[in-house]
What we know:
Elements: H1 5-19, H2 21-33, H3 38-48, H4 58-61, H5 68-78, H6 84-88, H7 97-103, H8 108-122, E1 127-131, E2 134-138, E3 155-157, E4 164-166, H9 173-182, H10 190-221
Antiparallel strand pairs: 1-2, 1-3, 3-4
Helix pairs in contact: 2-10, 5-8
Amino acid sequence: MWDSSRPGRKIAGEKVFRRYFPLFIILWILVVLYPNPLNIIVSIQRAADLRVDPGAVEVMLDDLPSDPVAVEKAVLARIPYGYDWEVYGMPWYFPTVQEVLERERGDCKARALVLASILEARGIPYRVNMSPMHIWVEYESKAETPIENPDAMFYQRDPQTGETQFQVPRIELIEVMDAAWRGFWPVMPLDRKILLVSGLLALIAARVLLFRARKQEQEAVS
């Protein structure tokens, strides 16, 4: 039996697809980048409420020097640099200290968490600084670098006093974009690249075909 409601449902579906096409694009990107959307939610919460874990680094304390500069060098040696794509399979993830120690790899977030936890356990004053492309731990005798300096900072948190500070960072936008690109596309797994691009092309192709079909219908009516 012919279902007379089918053409109506088809037209309604096409209208929804055309109207919310940008939303479908965004949803596809998010699904590919974060198959488990809870990871991005948890990461945002952890970044907003950065928590160190002195207990997690207790096993490391006996083997570390007392000088914070030497401690930082030891942390950098123990936690080789790895982008979030390489370590956690997603473009951006804010781990816990325990996760960093288990993976034994991580980016600036991971290294800063471990270093801050060690300084906290040792009772050494420190502050956590963030720039649009980097996170680092500041302590007495900490040397400035091109990416670790007051000009680059946009957020600072002092765990002892609870004070936070915001400022407009004085860094070039091209530097931020370059850092974001290097941590996203070049290290993205090949299968995820293929999935992302093929899905976007399929959505765009569907949008073009619907547009052409609608145009042909309008021309036929006129």
